[in-house]
Design brief:
The protein is of the alpha/beta class. It is built from 6 helices and 5 strands, in the order βαββαβαβααα. It has a 5-stranded mixed sheet.
Length: 196
């Protein structure tokens, strides 16, 4: 992976995270760009390097748009650190600029998952790992509650997919599609176990 050195004074900073947003990788794909379809499917093969290459090399972005990334690798789920927690996600910024989400989500931590809930239901093992390794520690560290965790579909305005495809910057025209099989109540039940 190429290293990116940018002037951190130019980066937009998060003062204190107020929300955590969970988003499937397919929502971060930019319209009319090439990406390997297999990159969006959970499998036992590493995709993190392809995801980084997509944002850094193909889209020529200075920073990756997610704070954390999760995928199924070998025999279990793994979690990678992306963007520093002190920096705002460019994906969230694009949604805010097009008024696809409410401004209350501007200081959010973005967790991108390589799971496609348009065609499959969430795996409990994944939700347990996400709760144990990422969500519970973040909630405790930043004194947030379970109500501060949002799935992307729950915060998008109804006309968000149309608005974002009309973004003036072609690199910010994300393909937003609803995740039919995601149920937030399952995660809410699981995370309670890790907050005791």
């Amino acid at each position: 992976m190429k290293s990116r050195i940018i002037n951190d004074k130019l980066m937009i900073r998060i003062k204190k995270p107020k929300n955590i947003i969970i988003c499937p990788l397919h929502n971060l794909m930019v319209d009319k760009t090439y990406y390997e379809p297999k990159m969006l499917q959970s499998s036992y093969k590493l995709t993190w390097n392809k995801v980084q290459s997509y944002f850094y090399d193909q889209l020529q972005q200075d920073q990756i748009p997610m704070h954390f990334y999760s995928e199924y690798l070998e025999e279990d789920y793994v979690f990678f650190v992306g963007l520093p927690l002190s920096s705002r996600s460019s994906f969230i910024e694009a949604l805010l600029k097009t008024k696809a989400i409410n401004s209350q989500y501007k200081d959010s931590i973005l967790i991108v998952i390589n799971e496609d809930y348009r065609i499959e239901i969430p795996d409990n093992r994944f939700l347990q790992g996400l709760s144990h390794h990422i969500l519970a520690p973040l909630l405790k560290e930043w004194k947030l509650t379970r109500e501060n965790i949002h799935f992307i579909d729950d915060i998008l305005y109804d006309d968000a997919p149309k608005k974002i495809l009309n973004h003036k910057d072609p690199q910010q025209r994300f393909i937003l599609e609803k995740s039919t099989y995601y149920n937030p109540h399952i995660l809410d039940t699981i995370i309670k176990e890790y907050l005791k």
